[in-house]
Specification:
Layout (H helix, E strand, L loop, with lengths): L12 E6 L5 H6 L5 E5 L9 H11 L10 E5 L6 H12 L6 E4 L5 H13 L5 E6 L2 H5 L1 H5 L5 E6 L1 H8 L5 H17 L3 E4 L8 H14 L3 E4 L5 H7 L4 H17 L4 E3 L2 E3 L1 H17 L3
C-alpha cells in the first residue's frame, strides 16, 4: 500500500485534550484550533491509561466537530509497555485513526519501524513527531526523512530543556528550535512550537509566538482555548504577504515556467512553493 501524499493543511494552533475526558473531545474540536491532540501520555496517570486508550481510539474518530480540524492521538513512548499497547490499539481500532503523535523519539528507526508496521496492516495513519530529547535533536534531519507518513515536527521544549540542562527560555532553546525548523523545512514538513505555559502572561505568549513565526515555525500549541485566536492570527499570512504572493505567482504563470525575475529579484522554486503555501493556508482558514 502506498502512503498518501502530504497535503497542505492549516496547522497554526493545536490543543491537547486528556484521553480520560472524552466529553472534552467535541469541545476541543469546536474551540477554533487547527489541531486537537488527545493525550494518552503526560495527561494520563498510569492507573488510567488502559481506560483512556479505549476511549481515545473509540471516541475521537467519531466525535462531533468540524472536518477541517486535524485529529491526533498522542501515544506513549514506543519504548514502553504502554506505548506498545497503544500501537496494538491503533492496529485494532474500530475506525481508522487519521494521525498519531510520537513522543520521546530518539532516532529515525523508531519512526521507520512503526511506519512499516502501518504499511503492513494497510492503515493510512499519518505521523507527527515530537522532538524533545537530545538524541532526537541530533538526529532531527534523519527523523524528518524517515517516513513519508510524517506531517509535522513538534518541539517539546520542557523535556528538551531538562535534557539539555538549560533553562526553558527563548535564548537557551533558540538553537534547538532552529534545528527543528531546518529539519522540517528540508522535507516540506510543518514545524509546531511548544505551548507557552503561563496562561496569565498574554504579552509574553504573543512575543514568543511572533518570534516562533519569524524563525520559521508554522504554528504553536495552546494550553487554553483563549490563547487560540491570538496564535491563529500570528501564524496566518498578513495582507501584504498575500498580495505579494499573488503578484509573484501570477507573474510566474504568465511566464509559463522557467526562471522568474520579479521586481529585480530572482525567484526560485523553493520561494514559489513557499508563496503557494501561503495562499493555500489562507484559503483553508479564511472562513474560520
Amino acid at each position: 500500500m502506498s502512503t498518501p501524499e502530504r497535503k497542505i493543511r492549516a496547522r497554526r494552533s493545536f490543543i491537547f485534550a486528556p484521553g480520560t475526558r472524552p466529553d472534552m473531545f467535541p469541545k476541543a474540536l469546536c474551540c477554533g484550533t487547527d489541531i486537537v491532540c488527545v493525550d494518552l501520555e503526560d495527561a494520563v496517570a498510569p492507573k488510567d491509561k488502559a481506560q483512556a486508550r479505549i476511549q481515545a481510539f473509540e471516541r475521537l474518530p467519531v466525535a462531533d466537530g468540524p472536518e477541517r480540524v486535524e485529529r491526533i492521538i498522542r501515544v506513549n513512548c514506543l519504548r514502553t509497555v504502554d506505548g506498545m499497547k497503544d500501537v496494538q490499539a491503533l492496529l485494532d481500532a474500530p475506525s481508522p485513526i487519521a494521525s498519531i503523535m510520537l513522543p520521546k523519539v530518539k532516532g529515525p528507526e523508531e519512526v521507520r519501524n512503526l511506519s512499516d508496521l502501518l504499511t503492513e496492516y494497510k492503515l493510512p495513519t499519518r505521523l507527527h513527531i515530537i522532538i524533545e530529547t537530545n538524541e532526537a535533536l541530533e538526529a532531527a534531519h534523519e527523523i524528518a526523512r524517515s517516513s513519508e507518513r510524517i506531517e509535522a515536527l513538534f518541539f517539546g521544549g520542557v523535556d528538551m530543556a531538562a535534557d539539555l540542562r538549560c533553562k526553558s527560555t527563548w535564548m537557551a532553546l533558540q538553537y534547538a528550535r532552529s534545528r527543528i525548523v531546518h529539519a522540517a523545512a528540508t522535507v516540506g514538513l510543518d514545524a509546531i512550537d511548544v505551548p507557552y505555559l503561563d496562561l496569565g502572561d498574554r504579552e509574553g505568549m504573543l512575543r514568543e509566538a511572533e518570534l516562533s513565526a519569524e524563525l520559521g515555525f508554522t504554528g504553536k500549541g495552546a494550553i487554553h482555548p483563549k490563547q487560540i485566536p491570538d496564535i491563529n492570527a500570528i501564524f496566518a499570512p498578513d495582507d501584504a504577504s498575500l498580495e505579494y504572493a499573488r503578484r509573484v505567482l501570477d507573474a510566474f504563470e504568465e511566464r509559463d515556467g522557467g526562471l522568474l525575475v520579479f521586481e529585480g529579484k530572482l525567484i526560485e522554486k523553493p520561494v514559489l512553493r513557499s508563496l503557494a503555501r501561503i495562499l493555500e493556508v489562507h484559503e483553508i482558514t479564511k472562513a474560520h
